[in-house]
Design goal:
The protein is mostly beta strands and 399 residues long. The chain has helices at residues 23-28, 367-373; strands at 4-6, 75-80, 93-94, 104-111, 120-127, 136-144, 154-157, 165-170, 176-178, 183-186, 194-202, 211-212, 215-221, 228-236, 241-242, 247-254, 263-271, 276-284, 290-297, 306-307, 313-315, 320-328, 335-336, 347-353, 380-381. Strands 1, 2, 5, 9, 10, 13, 14, 17, 20, 21, 24 and 25 form a 12-stranded mixed beta sheet that branches. It has a 5-stranded antiparallel beta sheet with strand order 7-4-11-6-8, with no helix packed on it. A hairpin with a 5-residue loop joins strand 18 (276-284) and strand 19.
Length: 399
Amino acid sequence: MGISYLQPAETFVRAPANGPCSPLAWLALGATLFACGPAPIGGAAGSGGTGGSAGTAGSGGASVGPQFKPPDCEQTHSFYAHGGVGEADTTPFPIPLRPDNGGNAYQCFYFDPPYPADSQGLWFYPDLSRADKRFIHHMILYGTETRKHVSGTSERCSGIQVGAYFVAGWAPGSGETQFPSDVGVLLPNAATGQYILEVHYGNPNNIADAVDSTGMQFCTARPDARPHTASTHFTGTEAICVPPGGEFTAQGPCDPRDDLGDIHVIGWSPHAHLLADRVTTKIMRANGSVEVMHDEPYSFNNQRPYGAPGGEIIIRAGDTIETSCHYRNPTAFEVPFGEKTQDEMCYNFVLAWPANALSIDPATLGDWEREALLGQQERRCVKPLSIFGSCNGADDMPK
């Protein structure tokens, strides 16, 4: 059985290069994240399953929601954006006005782990029932092994959580996440770790009085509940500079560590912004052959995840990976890598076990690259200095 990504009943159409939902039209329509509007494309989400399609919307549909979490869940937890202080605070969070940053604002909400030691994560459900999705670019639940903030507090932050790792997330078109029955997800240490719920808000028209209570529900079980423990890893690049009125392809090589044995890829989720129209991930086998893991059209408004055909793809010692993103830019401005919706990104978030295995091998890096790793997220297989290939070099890295 492959990873099962269950999608919501309503998703969004792909924005064409020209037309009512093109980047230029998006700006003209007020530049809220969903100015072009939602377009239902089927019934409730399908049951997911193996083999690439992994839970696309279908007729009839299957049950999706908190009441349908896996039967081996032992505890259920939730973290929400909130405007006050305290883990149980339910005050809606006032969406910031950031005219100085194109309306983009990042807010980080901090929570201590609420479960027993060494628990596994089995299911993640992004709860947007009290969210104003017009203003939400994405939500990422990060984990860290170093507790630095008081639980139940929040602060303005950037799009890079140094020393943290991706646990779960939501972007337009995605839905709840379940895993194969023999795979759980590595979570922050209960005694010393912490969660960071990062929400990227986009409010370019400075609409006042907008509030949000976006959140993530998840369930856990004892550490031996499932035999394999996975984690999500970054692949891709920050070397992005899309020329005005032109096309551009960003390419990000990945040479993963090989000291943890075979790497079992069970799913992935591409992420870019408004100008990207295709994301590709290839495996360059040690024997010289090339295997296409992912090669699909991309739309910011339909960032659906994918399951591995047959349940898993195995990466072995000596294999490397390359993730690339193709962009078309109809505007009169060059577009760099960056955290704003108006900037671009090129990532494919790959879920694989054993946890941490699909991380860059420090032995393949120079001194400056190893130093740069200290200022980035963990579980990355991205060249640490690729930002110097962005339009403005290191100035484009979120601060």
